[in-house]
Every structure is written in C-alpha cells, then in structure tokens.
Write a structure and sequence with these properties.
This protein has about 220 residues and is an alpha/beta fold. The chain folds into two domains: about 5-120, no CATH class; about 130-205, no CATH class. It has six helices and nine strands. The strands form three sheets. It has a five-stranded mixed beta sheet, sandwiched between helices. It has a two-stranded antiparallel ribbon with strand order 3-4. The relative contact order is 0.09. The structure holds zinc ion. Zinc ion binds near residues 17 and 51.
C-alpha cells in the first residue's frame, strides 16, 4: 500500500458540448501527505471533471483508497453500485490488506483494519459525523481538565469502531473504567455542560445496556 496520492489520466467526452479532453481521476488520497486533496475530498469536490470548453462539470465515480494515518483510518471507497458485492469486497479487502501487511517491516504494519465504504458522499458524511464527535471530545476534555474529572482517551480506530466520542469521562483514574465509572463521569461532565448531545446520547445508550463494557484494546 503506497503512502502517496495517485491519479489516472482518462479521456473524457463532455456530456454537454461533446468536447474531448483529458481529465484527472484520483484513485488514492493520502490525507497526511496531501491535506489540500483531503479538503477537496471532504468538500465533496473530488473527481469532478470540468470541461475546458463549456465548464460543464460531471462527477466520475471510481474506487478511491483513502489513508489518514493520524486518524488511524484506511478506507476502501467503492462506487455505490458495487454495494451488492459487499460481502465479497469485505473479504477480499481484508485478505489483500493482511497479505500486504505480512511483507511490511513490523513497525510499518498497521494494528487497525481498513473500512469498506460505498460512495464518496457516504464517506464525506461519515467524516462529518466523526468531526462533530471530535469537536465534542475536545470540549469534554477541556471540562474534564477544568473540573478535575478523570478521563480516558480512546484510540481513533477504536472510537470509530464503537461510533463513540474519543474522550470518555470516568469516576476514577484507572485505565479501563467500569460501566459505573463511565456513567459517574458522564454525570459530572453533563452537569457542567448539558448541551453535549453526543455525550447525553452515550449516557442514555450505556444506561440502556447493563452489559456495556469499555474494551480499550
Ligand atoms: Zn463541454
């Protein structure tokens, strides 16, 4: 798996005026190396090809590999019409990923798995939701510091798998707080700022689930 962004040059015929031109279609986006490209993707502008003659713009669906090591994120983004092959694609993605890992230097190996997504728009929406979780996590962390509420910080890949905020307040300062600890921490946090709706939602879902357990590995 290459650590750069890559593109294909393709021949395009404008759907509006018939002009033939060469378009650039991105096939891999490395957010760490190319933050501008990341912004273009998250702005929903990636792989929109514009006719040089009449400015007609058309989106071209194509597989995109998205990597953001800082966020522990590798996403295989397929066109939405391939969603019916989900089971097969999930299997082949994991197989290819683990095969590639075995030939890597141990320290270059990833200890998190790639995710499978159908459609760039779906991915953009996922990242938007993740971003709002990150915003509330930052606020929560600041409150925890200010009011001396102990907290644990989940790894990005772990929080994503749990669809959870990363900063979890806790009633104690142990590394793996229990359900009761986290509920106590959430009570203290929400007493300071009741507008943290993602935290209120988390508290409600933990309250509704007596088996809830924080697995940090
Ligand atoms: Zn045109």
């Amino acid at each position: 798996m290459s650590a750069v962004s890559t593109f294909n040059k393709i021949d395009v015929t404008c759907g509006e005026c018939g002009k033939e031109f060469t378009g650039i279609l991105w096939t891999a986006v490395h957010a760490g190396e190319d933050p501008v490209l990341k912004d273009i993707l998250l702005g929903g502008e990636l792989n929109i090809l514009m006719c040089p003659k009449c400015s007609h713009a058309a989106y071209r669906d194509h597989f995109v590999l998205y990597q953001d090591p800082a966020a522990e994120l590798i996403a295989y983004i397929y066109p939405p019409d391939q969603a019916s092959d989900e089971e097969f694609l999930q299997k082949s993605m994991l197989l290819a990923f683990h095969e590639a890992q075995t030939v890597m230097e141990p320290k270059a190996r990833k200890d998190y798995e790639p995710i499978l997504v159908f459609g760039l728009a779906t991915f953009v929406e996922m990242m938007r939701v993740e971003n709002s979780r990150a915003e509330q996590s930052q606020i929560a962390e600041a409150i925890c510091h200010e009011f001396k509420i102990p907290f644990v910080v989940l790894r990005p890949s772990k929080a994503r798998a749990l669809t959870s905020v990363r900063v979890l307040p806790s009633g104690t300062s142990i590394k793996t707080p229990t359900r009761a600890d986290v509920l106590a921490g959430l009570d203290r946090l929400l007493a300071q700022n009741s507008s943290l709706d993602l935290y209120a939602g988390l508290r409600a879902s933990i309250q509704a689930n007596p088996q809830w357990k924080l697995l940090t590995t």
